[in-house]
């Protein structure tokens, strides 16, 4: 395998292409358990029949843990939206249909979203009262077991030349409530500075899935709090503001 063509650089990992293969190489700061868990998540999601890059190998290259998958040739939905702004509505509608397809699947061996969020809320730097309020709100939410991507945004969708979509990056996949996944996507649009896109996305998601908007909005402080554990200072500040403005019921 040759690590000579970089196609993406992320926090603590670099993605390379070698022919028909894609190598995600993690640096030494990454937990081995997290890397193996990511590969296991992806292998489990493969079994649902969704179009995703297949895992080919988990190996060590030059002392660094590496996940090897199929390389998918194409453009991300984020690139297409930037290149064809006049088609954004069409792309958003397609994006929501794809998310609803993911949420229609079950993957019983994945971590439960509720357990992950409970753990994350406990790790936040909010005061004890706020953490208690967030835990209480989380406990009151309906329990579902739908496949949740956890980072569903247009840069994680690749369209091949013939328009076939593939969904990337299953490191955050869990099983849980669809509206929590939608709340996460909404906040990702905000974090990316696309507020009109966030609002239109939420309208389309609620309309197509038959979900009340208030129900997704109820998840937002929980999702924002659990997400605030990582990320840069600016992101944490923004996510904190989503938790701080909420009137708890």
Any key phrases for this structure?
single chain; 249 residues; alpha+beta; five-stranded antiparallel β-sheet; three-stranded antiparallel β-sheet
Could you name the ranges where pLDDT drops below 50 across 5 or more consecutive residues? none
Mean of all residue-level pLDDT scores: 93
Shape category? globular
Q: Helix coverage percent of residues?
A: 40-55%
Write the element-wise H/E pattern from the N-terminal end onward: EEEHEEEHHHHEEEEHHHH
Structural class: alpha+beta
Q: In whole angstroms, how far apart are the ends?
A: 55 Å
Sheet having the most strands: 5 strands, antiparallel
DSSP strand content: 15-25%
Strand order in space, largest sheet: 1-2-3-5-4
Oligomeric grouping of the chains: single chain
DSSP strand count: 10
Number of helices: 9
Please compute the radius of gyration using only Cα atoms: 18 Å
Structure notes:
By secondary structure, the chain is α+β, with helices and mostly antiparallel strands. Helices cover 47% and strands 18% of the residues. The protein is built from nine helices and ten strands.
């Amino acid at each position: 395998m040759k690590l000579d063509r970089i196609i993406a650089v992320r926090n603590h990992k670099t993605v390379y292409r070698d022919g028909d293969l894609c190598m995600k190489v993690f640096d030494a700061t990454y937990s081995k358990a997290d890397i193996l868990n990511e590969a296991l998540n992806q292998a489990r999601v493969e079994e649902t029949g969704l179009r995703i890059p297949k895992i080919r190998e988990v190996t060590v290259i030059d002392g660094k843990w590496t996940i090897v998958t199929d390389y998918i040739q194409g453009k991300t939905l984020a690139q297409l939206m930037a290149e064809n702004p006049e088609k954004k509505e069409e792309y958003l509608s397609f994006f929501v249909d794809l998310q609803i397809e993911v949420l229609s699947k079950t993957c019983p061996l994945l971590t439960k979203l509720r357990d992950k969020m409970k753990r994350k809320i406990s790790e936040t730097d909010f005061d004890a009262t706020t953490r208690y309020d967030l835990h209480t709100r989380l406990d009151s939410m309906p329990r579902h077991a739908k496949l949740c991507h956890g980072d569903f945004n247009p840069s994680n969708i690749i369209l091949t030349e013939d328009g076939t979509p593939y969904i990337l990056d299953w490191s955050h996949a869990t099983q849980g409530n669809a509206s929590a996944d939608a709340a996460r996507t909404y906040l990702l649009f905000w974090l990316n500075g696309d507020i009109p896109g966030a609002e239109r996305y939420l309208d389309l998601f609620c309309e197509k899935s038959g979900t009340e908007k208030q129900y997704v909005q109820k998840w937002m402080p929980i999702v924002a709090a659990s997400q605030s554990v990582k990320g840069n200072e600016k992101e944490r500040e923004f996510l904190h503001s989503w938790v701080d403005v909420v009137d708890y019921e």
